[in-house]
C-alpha cells in the first residue's frame, strides 16, 4: 500500500518513526514521511522518502547522510557543540517564556499543519499514518479526502503529558474531546505500551488498540562489555521531570563511577540545571551512544512519577539498554518498574531519592554478572522483531479490509 506518515519531529532523530517506516517499506509498502525541520543531508532508510516542513517559512525538502541522534524520543532541539551548560535567563524573561510558550507552540503547529497539507495534497495514499495527536486532525481530513485508511499512532498518553508552560485548561479539554472523537474514527490505533493501551481503552472506550513498543532490533554482533561497570549513561532528552536533578545529586555520592547524560535538551531547563559531577554532553549519533553505554556497563532509565504519562511509560532508554545488553538502574514507577522486575533487567530506586539511586547503582555493580545474564535472556522478548510483527499485523488487517 501507499503509506503517508505525518510527524512533527525532525524524523532523523525519531527512532520510532524511522523503524516503523523502514519495517513497512521492507514489507513492500511505499512509505513517504512528512516531518518538520528534517536535517539537511539526512538520508532516509531504503524504500522510504521524506519531505520537510519548515514551520517558520514554509516547505523544503532535504536529503543526506546524518544518523539518528541518541534521543530516542525524536525531539528536534540539540545541544550546541562543546559544553552544553548555558547561563540562566533573567527572571522576567523566564516568566515571559512560560507565559508565551503555549501561543508559540500553537503557532508552530499551525504552520506545520498548513505546510504538511500543501505537501500532501498531490500525494496518493492508501493509508494515512498520524504520529501523535498533533497530526491527527490533519491526518483525518487527508484520509477522508483520499478515501484512505487512518492509523493513529500515539507515542504517549497525550492528555497526561508533562506541562512546562502556562496552563491552558480550555485548550486541554478541547484537545481531549478531539482525540476521543477522532481516534474512535481511526481504522487502527497503535501505541507504545500496555499501560497507555489500557488507558486508551478505559478512558476512551477504544478496542482497536495494538501495542507496538519502542524497542530496537538486536545487534548483528553482541556489544563487547567490560569486566565490571565503570559508570552509567542516561541517553535521551534532558528536560524537566526526567529525574536528572536526582541523578546529579547521586553522582556526588558515587566516587569512582562516572555518570554521564547525553542528548538534546530543553535550553530553559538546562540553563538552571546544576550538574555537579554529572557529565552533560550533546546528542551523539546512535551507534556512538550505544558504544558509550556498552563501555560504561550500566544505563540510567529515569523519569518522575508526577504525570500520568510517566506512570504508564516504557521509555526508549529501557529498550536501548536491552539492545546493548547492559543492566538498567531505573525509577520505581508503575509500568517501567513492572518490566524491570518481570525480566530482572536491573535495580530500582524511588523517584526523587538520590541516596536510593546511589544505592541502586552500587547494587547493580555488585550484581552485574547476574543482571547481564538476565538482560541477554530477555532480549528476544523485548526486541523489535516482536513489535515489527505487531505493526505488520495491523497493516495486513488494513489490506484485507
Automatic annotation (TrEMBL):
Keywords: Glycosyltransferase, Transferase. This is Glycosyltransferase family 4 protein. Residues 44-86 are annotated as: Disordered. Pfam families: Glyco_trans_1_4 (PF13692), Glyco_transf_4 (PF13439). Residues 17-214 form the Glycosyltransferase subfamily 4-like N-terminal domain. The keyword Aminoacyl-tRNA synthetase does not apply.
Amino acid at each position: 500500500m501507499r503509506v503517508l506518515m505525518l510527524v512533527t519531529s525532525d524524523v532523523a532523530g525519531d527512532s520510532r518513526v524511522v523503524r516503523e517506516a523502514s519495517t513497512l517499506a521492507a514489507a513492500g509498502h511505499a512509505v513517504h514521511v512528512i516531518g518538520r525541520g528534517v536535517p539537511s543531508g539526512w538520508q532516509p532508510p531504503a524504500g522510504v522518502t521524506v519531505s520537510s516542513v519548515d514551520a517558520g517559512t514554509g516547505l523544503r525538502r532535504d536529503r543526506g547522510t546524518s544518523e539518528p541522534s541518541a534521543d530516542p524520543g525524536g525531539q528536534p532541539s540539540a545541544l550546541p557543540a562543546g559544553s552544553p551548560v548555558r547561563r540562566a535567563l533573567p527572571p522576567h524573561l523566564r516568566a515571559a517564556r512560560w507565559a508565551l510558550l503555549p501561543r508559540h507552540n500553537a503557532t508552530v503547529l499551525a504552520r506545520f499543519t498548513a505546510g504538511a497539507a500543501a505537501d500532501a495534497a498531490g500525494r496518493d495514499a492508501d493509508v494515512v499514518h498520524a504520529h501523535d495527536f498533533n497530526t491527527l486532525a490533519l491526518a483525518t481530513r487527508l484520509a477522508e479526502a483520499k478515501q484512505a485508511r487512518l492509523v493513529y499512532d500515539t507515542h504517549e498518553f497525550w492528555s497526561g503529558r508533562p506541562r512546562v508552560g502556562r496552563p491552558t485548561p480550555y485548550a486541554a479539554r478541547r484537545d481531549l474531546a478531539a482525540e476521543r472523537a477522532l481516534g474512535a474514527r481511526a481504522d487502527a490505533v497503535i501505541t507504545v505500551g500496555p499501560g497507555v493501551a489500557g488507558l486508551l481503552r478505559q478512558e476512551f472506550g477504544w478496542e482497536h488498540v495494538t501495542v507496538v513498543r519502542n524497542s530496537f532490533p538486536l545487534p548483528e554482533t553482541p556489544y563487547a562489555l567490560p569486566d565490571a561497570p565503570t559508570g552509567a549513561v542516561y541517553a535521551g532528552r534532558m528536560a524537566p521531570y526526567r529525574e536528572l536533578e536526582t541523578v546529579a545529586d547521586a553522582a556526588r555520592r558515587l566516587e569512582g563511577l562516572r555518570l554521564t547524560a547525553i542528548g538534546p535538551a530543553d535550553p530553559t531547563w538546562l540553563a538552571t540545571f546544576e550538574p555537579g559531577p554529572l557529565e552533560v554532553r550533546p546528542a551523539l549519533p546512535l551507534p556512538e551512544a550505544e558504544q558509550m553505554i556498552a563501555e560504561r556497563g550500566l544505563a540510567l532509565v529515569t523519569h518522575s512519577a508526577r504525570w500520568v504519562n510517566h506512570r504508564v511509560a516504557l521509555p526508549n532508554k529501557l529498550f536501548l539498554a536491552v539492545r546493548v545488553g547492559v543492566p538498567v538502574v531505573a525509577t520505581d514507577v508503575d509500568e517501567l518498574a513492572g518490566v524491570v522486575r518481570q525480566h530482572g533487567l536491573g535495580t530500582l530506586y524511588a523517584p526523587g531519592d538520590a541516596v536510593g539511586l546511589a544505592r541502586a547503582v552500587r547494587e547493580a555493580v555488585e550484581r552485574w554478572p547476574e543482571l547481564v545474564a538476565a538482560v541477554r535472556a530477555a532480549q528476544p522478548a523485548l526486541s523489535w522483531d516482536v513489535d515489527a510483527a505487531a505493526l505488520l499485523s495491523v497493516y495486513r488487517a488494513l489490506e484485507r479490509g
